[in-house]
Amino acid sequence: MSRMLRSCIQSLLKLVNSFMAMFGIAIILYAIWMIRAWHRQMPHSDSPPPWFIYTMLGLGVTLCVITCSGHIAAETANGCCLYCYLVFVVFLLMLEGAVTIDVFLNRNWEEDFPKDPSGNFNEFKDFIKENFDICKWVGLSIVSVQGLCTVLALILKGLGPHQERHYDSDDDYTHDEIPLLRNYVNQPTYVVGAPVYGTR
To answer: Is the separation of the CB atoms in 183 and 101 below 8 Å?
Structure first.
């Protein structure tokens, strides 16, 4: 029963984790589109793309790395992998919470960020203001997916690793793990035949 439950939790964690991967890939594609637009606007400029583009690209790559570690943790159900994955997801949730609190509680939150010469940050901000309801639901769904991933990883950690044991050779097995041979091995050995005496 516990093996079936563990398998279901592993599959569910992989499925929910895939939504986070799709969001990370979407952010990477958006960042690549912004880089191309930046190079079209400034064709002869040697200046690197602004901080907002790099931030979006880094966020997308980070989400994909976290998703990859989540798939590895779900597949192996290893305690160390699950702990690392949980640390990544909880750190990401705390970072999102800090930025959200700063935006909602600080009226001059735009001064906390450096100026963006490309104007992409202002376009992004205006897009969020115009489509606030949609962006609110997208943000809540992303946070819910991350929270669900955390809960599923904790349940999987509580179930423990697989009980299967792998051995390099047959000599590594102990007789306690072979129930049919247990009685045979513990019986004393008898010698049938005439006793052999040593010669002087």
So the answer is: no
Report how far residue 31's alpha carbon sits from residue 44's, in angstroms, rounded to the nearest whole number.
Answer: 20
108 is written with which tokens?
């001059």
Q: Is the dihedral of CA 41, 52, 31, 132 positive or negative?
A: negative
Q: Which of 15-46 are b and which e, b meaning 16 or more Cβ less than 10 Å from the residue's Cβ? A: ebbebbbebbeebbebbeebbeebeeeeeeee
pLDDT tens sequence across 107-144? 777 777 777 777 777 888 888 788 888 888 888 888 88
Q: What secondary structure letter does DSSP report for 74?
A: H
Structure tokens, 126? 């205006």
Which of 119, 162, 89 is closest to 127 using CA atoms?
119
Q: How much is the pTM?
A: 0.68
20, 149 Cβ separation under 8 angstroms: yes
Selection from 145, 136, 150 nearest residue 18 by Cα:
145
Where are the alpha helices (H) located in 77-171, listed in sequence order? 79-105, 120-130, 132-159
